[in-house]
C-alpha cells in the first residue's frame, strides 16, 4: 500500500495540532464572505487547510474537513454557524490534511463528492485516519465522483466544481460560487507560500501553473479567493503566486539547460530572490528548487 504522499502532506499541519487543540482548533476563525458562505481557518491558516462552508434552507455543504484529530472541533464550529448536519462534503484533493474527517462525516450521513482520481487513490493507497494509516474506510470514500465538473444548485446559488488536471495532484477540484464571486482553490493555491506540488500523486508544475491561470481568468478585482493554505486571497495575490512560480521554473530551467546538476543548481540558489517572502517550514526554498529540478529533468 502506497500512502507516502498523503503522509507527507499531513506532516506540516501536525506541527500545529497542540496549539489548535488549545485554541479551538480549526474553529479558530470563521469569515463570512457572502450571506451563508464562510471560510473556516485555523491558527495561522494551516490547520489542515482552509475550509469552505455553504449554509441555507436547502442544506449545508462543506468543502474539505481538515485533520482527523480535529473533526469534533470542526463539527462544533459548524454548529455555531448553522443548524442541521452536513449534507454534502466536497473533497478538493486526496491529502490527509484535507480529508481527515471524511469517515466521521460519512458516518453522519454526508454525501462525499470528489474527482474520480481521488476516490481511486483512496481505494488503491489508503489514507490517514484518527486510528492511523491504513485502508480507506468505506464511510470515508466519495460516493459521487466526476471526471470534469459538477454543479450544486443549493441555497439560491450555483457552486460550480471543476477539475484542474495534474496540478497539486491528479484529482484536484476547484469550486466557483459564481453569484458570490468566491472561489475555493483547494491546494491549487498556497497564498504567500511556496506551493506543495505532489509529483508522486500526479501533480505537476506545468499543470499547477495552468490551473492557477484558469482560476485567474475567472477572477476580477472583487473576487474573494479561499486558498488551500494561507490567508484569504485576492486576484492580485493569485497573480503574484503564478508569476512567482512561472519565473522560478524558468530560473531553474535555464540552469538545467546549461547542463548543471541538481547539486550545482542548489548551490547556485536560483530562487534566493523569493526566499524571504515565500519560504516556509514545509516547502523551503531548497525543496521548491528540488521539485522544479525533478520535473524539468524527468524523462
The whole-number mean of residue pLDDT values reads: 89
How many β-strands, per DSSP? 14
Number of helices: 11
The whole-angstrom Rg is 18 Å
Full CATH superfamily name: Ribonuclease Z/Hydroxyacylglutathione hydrolase-like
Name of the CATH architecture: 4-Layer Sandwich
Q: Ends: how far apart? A: 25 Å
Structural class comes to: alpha/beta
Helical content (DSSP H or I, runs of 4+): 25-40%
Shape: globular
- Indicate the CATH topology: Metallo-beta-lactamase, Chain A
Poorly predicted spans = 1-27
Q: What proportion of the residues form beta strands (DSSP E)?
A: 15-25%
What is the spatial order of strands in the main beta sheet?
1-2-3-4-5-6-9
Please give the domain count.
1
Largest sheet: 7 strands, mixed
